[in-house]
Write a structure and sequence with these properties.
The chain has eleven helices and four strands. A hairpin with a 6-residue loop joins strand 3 and strand 4. A four-stranded antiparallel beta sheet has the order 1-2-4-3, with helices on one face. The chain is globular, with a radius of gyration of 18 Å. About 12% of the residues have low confidence. It is 52% helix and 7% strand. It is of the alpha+beta class.
Length: 243
């Protein structure tokens, strides 16, 4: 957790970064510090592609170069089913701190295999704490899919369930265009860090109340974002899902 937090903060404050986002004041081993930084990143970068690229860069930085250089040609391409199972197991074992309790499961209707090629996250910790569909899609789902496809040579489809908090990983399966469009078009969640206030703000029916993580900066960023969106489009839809 501390390493991930350090890598995320370092990436956001590189000299070439157009927007510098300070690290959280919370301890390095405090999970809410990651949520706070991710929230600020999503609120200050209005282009979702930039957010996705940053998140993917962080994932890349967590792996030794020799693994990323060799995994696609040594494992993913010649042994796709084995690679999918291995990545499912590794994700389940190594991702508990971020995702919460999870288990390896089977994926039906796969062209190749399907047994033990999935991971079911029972209640995603990242989604539950952020309570934001934009943060889920742009900071986790799409960059993680892109990381496995681009850097590991392995297809991955992640399907979050915003009602139950579950998330289904399907290794060896490329997401369809329809699935990605639905993910990007996901409306703001009814539950949010402001206990519903943020949704009311997005709907133009109220103001953002206090946020559970204590991030006053996030509130300021979201208010500024709302003013900008209203001036540009006349609506208060979530611009964090826009390119």
């Amino acid at each position: 957790m501390s390493l991930f937090r350090y890598k995320l903060s370092s990436r956001l404050n590189e000299p070439s970064s157009p927007i510098k986002i300070p690290d959280s004041k919370l301890p390095l081993d405090d999970f809410m510090g990651i949520i706070e930084i991710a929230a600020r990143m999503n609120s200050q970068y209005s282009n979702r592609t930039q957010v996705q690229t940053i998140a993917q860069d962080v994932l890349v930085s967590l792996f030794p170069t020799f693994i990323l250089d060799r995994y696609p040609s040594w494992f993913a391409k010649p042994f796709p089913e084995f690679s999918a199972k291995m990545c499912a197991w590794a994700t389940c074992v190594g991702g508990t701190w971020l995702m919460g309790e999870s288990s390896v499961n089977n994926i039906p209707n796969m062209e190749i295999g399907g047994e033990n090629m999935g991971v079911l996250v029972q209640r995603c910790r990242f989604l539950e704490e952020s309570q934001c569909a934009s943060i889920c899609v742009n900071s986790c789902k799409i960059p993680t899919q892109n990381f496995f496809r681009d850097n590991m040579g392995l297809a991955l489809t992640m399907t979050p369930d915003y009602e139950t908090g579950e998330c289904q990983f399907a290794f060896g399966k490329l997401p369809t265009e329809e699935e990605e469009t639905l993910a990007k078009d996901t409306p703001c969640l009814m539950r949010c860090p402001s206990s519903g206030g943020m949704r009311a703000w997005h709907d133009g029916k109220g103001t953002v109340g206090s946020i559970g993580s204590g991030s006053e900066k996030w509130i300021e960023d979201l208010n500024a974002l709302a003013e900008l969106q209203e001036k540009q489009t006349g609506s208060l839809s979530c611009v964090l899902m826009n390119d």
